[in-house]
Every structure is written in C-alpha cells, then in structure tokens.
C-alpha cells in the first residue's frame, strides 16, 4: 500500500510507560494511553447546556435581550435555593423553567449515580459541611 495515498495517518503511542508500581491518576500509564473516549461522550454531557444556549439565542433574536436576561436570572435564583447537605435536590424548579419537566429522558428511567439514595448520618454531614469536626 502506498503511504502517499493515506489521508489520515494512524496515530500510535510510541512508548507505553509500563511500570509495576502504582501511579497517581495524573501520571500517564498504559491504560490511560490506550483508553478510547468516544467523540459523542462530550457532546452528550453538554447537550442540555448547549440546547439551552441555542434556545436563549433564538429568544434574543425574536424578543430582544430582556427576555433571556429575565429567564437567566430566574434560573440563577432557582439554583440558589438549597436543601440541607444530606438531602438530594431534585432541581424541579430548574426543570420547570427550562421545560425539561415535560419530557422523559435517558436519566429519568436509567438510574445515574448522582440520583442514588444514600443513607448518611444527617448530623455528621451537616457538621462536615460547616467545618465542625469532633
């Protein structure tokens, strides 16, 4: 096969840093060098924010700057409402403001780790969040 006909050259890792000792997560190792991350992963992680930004740009083009600013301030105020540290927030106010309350998405029926129920000692969690260690 002619090397000149290749438009995209394969990229190989020239040297694998294999060692028998444990390494820190910031240091390169064989697994991190060979790990494959799909291109759509980042796209799916940022889908909601990207969709919101597109909707706000369209609203600004149609209604002017006031409507997206008001909606952004409403969303900011909804995110400031908190619960005690040991209670998980459902973010229902943010879902209502963005319109996500009307749709059933992937994370609604397939349990993602951040929605897992965790039994923790309420007093210990509050003391840790306030910086009180006994």
UniProtKB/TrEMBL annotation:
It comes from Drosophila albomicans. Pfam families: UMP1. It comes from the Eukaryota. Keywords: Chaperone, Proteasome. GO terms for cellular component: cytoplasm; nucleus; proteasome complex. This is Proteasome maturation protein. GO terms for biological process: proteasome assembly. The keyword Chaperone applies.
């Amino acid at each position: 096969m002619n090397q000149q006909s290749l438009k995209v050259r394969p990229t190989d890792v020239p040297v694998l840093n294999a060692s028998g000792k444990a390494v820190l997560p910031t240091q390169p190792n064989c697994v991190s060098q060979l790990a494959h991350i799909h291109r759509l992963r980042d796209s799916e992680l940022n889908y909601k924010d990207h969709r919101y930004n597109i909707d706000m740009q369209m609203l600004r083009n149609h209604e002017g700057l006031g409507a997206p600013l008001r909606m952004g301030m409403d969303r900011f105020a909804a995110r400031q409402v908190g619960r005690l540290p040991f209670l998980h927030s459902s973010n229902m106010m943010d879902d209502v403001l963005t319109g996500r309350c009307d749709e059933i998405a992937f994370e609604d029926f397939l349990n993602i780790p951040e929605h897992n129920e965790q039994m923790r000692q309420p007093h210990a969690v509050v003391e840790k969040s306030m910086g009180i260690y006994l």
